[in-house]
Amino acid sequence: MVRSIWNNYFAQNTAQLTNSVIRDLLHLTEQPSVISFAGGLPAPECFPAEELSAAAEQIIANNPVAALQYGLTEGYPPLRDLLIEHLHARQIDVCREELLLTAGSQQALDLLGRILIDPGSTIAVEDPTYLGALQSWRLYNPTYLTVPVDAEGLDVAALEQMLINGAQPRFLYIMSCFQNPTGVTLSPARREALLDLAVRFDLPIIEDDAYGELYYNDERPQPLAALDVARHGRLRYVAYLSSFSKLLAPGLRTGWVAASSGLIDKLVQVKQGTDLHTNSLAQAMIYQAVCDGLLERHVPYLRNTYRQRRDAMLAAFEQHVPVEVSWVVPEGGMFIWLTLPPYADTMEMLKLALEHDVAFVPGLPFYANGGGSNTMRLNFSHASRDDITAGIQRLAPVIERMI
Ligand SMILES: Cc1ncc(COP(=O)(O)O)c(C=O)c1O
Q1: What are the residues whose beta carbons fall under 8 Å from the beta carbon of 127, sequence distance 6 or more?
Q2: Is the CB of residue 175 below 6 angstroms from any atom belonging to ligand 1?
Q3: What is the pTM of this model?
């Protein structure tokens, strides 16, 4: 990093912000020869570019004020109303006061961090969890209570024991469907048990449902938020986050939080000082495109494409990857998580993999308190099926050598 006069004046909490070795290594994946399973990127050739372009043209021509003027912090009202209908269809009944549009769900995570975390506050996270959440909360300096995850998702019994033993997290952050990074989904029995715990221990839950619509079996798992509403008549314990990033395009930077109005009020106050409001043009475009039926046409197509890519990756694993390596088949989302024998070091393996023009993300940074150095995350949504097969053929001998 270039030192400048500014370096002498950085706020104390920025000391937490450092470049990661992995990020530096993954810069190398930008070379065209590399097949990368590292990013969490949607397939660019699947972006509904024509439809979004038509929506933009229409909205700017017919309603330039909605598209180009400053807007409400809470979000573009027609899109909020549309989302309320959308959430109702998922059995998450909310009113306008319980909904806030954000610049992607990443902004929702940051805003929640600002209003819920004091330095040293304990927060409970899955182990492993979404790296971007850890990054956004780093500035607020929490202490992490890490709860193990297995093939059925968060180990709710382990969390219960921690709470019985006196742990008092401010909230639990959980991805209940097709978790990033492991791809696992919280089982129905554990969903019920987790809500029991929320009531018993007064534990607020941030449910990040970035991937729920990308399901590859017949049914979408029911969000915890829907259970909360079914039990309590409205969102009481769960703050529900989701986004258009994985359904339409992440560049739109439009996501949302649904939660009880007391939380939304506070989030609106802090968002006002952050960016005034979410991008008006993006919100108006999404509204237009969704009214024209884009989600109904596009999301089934995405499910189909990504299911085929997942299956291509699983088939390549079966054929090429050594038997010492294990994984859980993800029923949705964008990732497969590999567990290698305990002595394997996937950070070292990444260096060797890059020499073979293939990339993945080592598991270590997904663990809030360290660990997981024998694990790795592979994305299957971005590369084509042919590249997936070729990439796993490149990766398999690297794994073999390292174990
Ligand atoms: C679990 C999870 N939450 C949140 C995000 C942020 O998404 P966005 O801000 O694009 O909505 C991501 C992005 O990959 C994610 O995987």
Answers
A1: 146, 147, 148, 149, 367, 368, 369, 371, 372
A2: yes
A3: 0.96
